[in-house]
Amino acid sequence: MTSLTIQQYNNNNNTDPDTEDTASASSNGDNGDSSNNHNNNNKNDPVSVADTLLADGLNALSFQDRNDINEEIHGVSCLAIVETPELISNSIEKLLHEINNNIPNKTKQAYIQAQRYCPTSNYNVGTDSNVNTSMNNNNLLYVNSTEFRLLFLRAELFDIRESALALVNYLNVVLELFGIYALQRPIRLSDFTESELLIFKMGNLQLLPFRDRSGRRIIAGVEGLGIQFDSKLRYKILFYLMWAAVDYNDVETQQRGVVVVIWPVSDVAMNQLKNKEQFIEKQKNYFKGSPVRVCAYHFCVPDRPFFHFLRMIFAYSLENNEVSKLKYHVGHVTELQYLVKGYGLPVDHIPLTESGNVKTHNLKVWLKLRKKLEKCSSGSSVCYSNALNGNISDGGNASDTTSTSVGTLGIGSLSVTSVASASLASSWSMSSSPYIIDCPGSDDVLFRPSKLIKGHPGNVKFHSLIEYEHESGLGIAKASKRIVEAIQQNNGRVLVWDKQGWWIHLTDESQILRKVYVSFRDYKQKKKARIQINDSSTSVFECQDGRKRIRPSSLLSVPPPASDNQNNANANKEYKYYDTRNNEQQSFCSLF
Question: Which residues contact residue 231 at a Cβ distance below 8 angstroms, ignoring those fewer than 6 apart?
Fold first, then answer.
């Protein structure tokens, strides 16, 4: 069906204009043939095909599943499983058993090959005891670590079978895209060649620096989507972005997932989509190895034929259970922004201008940060301390001028993994510093002189806490302490912006209190100033409190001056007028 539809679409687009006129004339001569042709055209239309795929995917689900998926797409709820230490321990044990005993060897070739690089593991197919005994070794292979396995358990909502398939598929994909070293250590930015990095920096695929309102990371594909480049490089960049989204021990992203926004704005020549059937199958196979759950796909396109065809191809490239997460948005750039904003996505951070140019500033800053962090030796507090001070050399050696650690503090974001792993800076993560943050969490409080952070969920909660404590009437000192306690109870962090391009996690209690104290004081001063402005702007009407405003027409109108001959006639004459202030008629007598 896929190849037939694409072939028919190409044939329809390549139809000669004269042939179209002839066909139109003949169809007008026979109503029955016209109706049949119209139905066939609807079946071959890319929009109809994509809508049919979406409808079939939704119809295959139960009402409850459709409702849950729809609510998660809108950011109303999250399908993540509530985790407990027992659930994690039992699930990992079942996952190992599933991989070693129920997954065919031909499906897990990369996984079997990876076990050969574990110093203490003598991996035998069909047994999982060797893997278990090696988990406490300091040189543990990263694919055998608890954190790595939890990635796929969370991505598949603790479905053991699907998690096992996703894990082995991921290793197969990174082995194909990055090479043998991807089985020995996590993928890095240094795995890209100089020419590949130049294409990476063009910004067709980016990981946005902020989350949506539900705490999900956003992967954006904009402009030409990189279709004009080699497909292997395109997926290489995509998998690096997916890995980077969860590489910082970011449990929130692992649980809540990511949102993919596809926003093409320029026509890509049809001949750049060579072997379209192969393109579809390859993308479908690669997506099976995703290390993170995709909650929604937002496909934003203008109303032009090519983009409808591209939309159909993308729908075909998704699995049946993923098609139901696909949302199509068609319209002008401004219309698309309003539509996407309704799903909780930060439109201001979409790396695309209204004229269709790609924004690359945030991407270049992020790549610079990744490059520095990945050159640090894993778990080196000295290296991370130097990173805070900007003393990381290009060679990755920490400067000798700084030799003290900043301190020790947990990540703090949904820290349920701490029960399954005693070490935050594990051997499989090259960027697990608890002090340098590339993307704030939903409960983090940000301090940066910028309008971009006003809508951050953590800052919204922070200002609500300030308003609540201000109404309680406590002093600034006591109120500030209570606010800090409330932030920490929600596993939030206080982050300050560094000019080098990242967030720094404040761990010193006195500095945190100082930040909160100043914010509380500024809030009181602004509120007091607003009250004074309101009082001063209404003070001229204080004499009218409880009474209606005096209208000019209700004022006493003095009669025109009379002539000398009329003075005697008008003497003691009574004049009447209506007093609108007291709603009654009044009178007075002339004295002349």
Answer: 279, 282
pTM, to two decimals: 0.71
Residues whose CB is less than 8 angstroms from the CB of residue 85 and which lie 6 or more positions away in sequence, other chains included: 416, 419, 420
Place of tokens 């993994």: 417
Q: CA–CA separation, 140 vs 145, rounded Å?
A: 7
DSSP assignment of 535-555: HHHHGGGGGGTTSPPPPGGGS
- How many residues are given for the chain? 592
Report the 10 Å Cβ neighbour count for 162: 17
* Best-predicted range by mean pLDDT (24-38, 377-391, 505-519, 542-556): 505-519
Instruction: Give the model confidence (pLDDT) of 211-241 as tens digits.
Output: 888 889 999 988 777 677 777 888 899 999 9
Confidence of residue 559 (pLDDT cuts 50, 70, 90): low
* CATH architecture observed for domain 189-359: 3-Layer(aba) Sandwich (3.40)
Instruction: Quote the CA–CA distance of 163 and 370 in Å, as a whole number.
Output: 28
Q: How many Cα atoms are found within 13 Å in the side-chain-facing hemisphere of 335?
A: 9
A 10 A CB-CB count for 468 gives 13
Residues 6+ apart with CB under 8 A from 195: none
The answer to whether 495 and 360 are in contact (CB under 8 A) is no
pLDDT single digits (tens) 423-461: 333 444 444 455 788 888 888 999 987 766 777 888 888
- pLDDT (average), residues 491-520: 88
Q: Where in the chain is the domain with CATH 3.40.525.10?
A: 189-359
Report, in angstroms and rounded to the nearest whole number, the Rg of the chain calculated over CA atoms: 34
Interatomic CA distance for residues 121 and 574, integer angstroms: 117
Q: Name the strand (E) or helix (H) holding 205.
A: strand 205-207
CB 12 within 8 A of CB 42: no
Q: Contact 169/176 with Cβ under 8 angstroms?
A: no
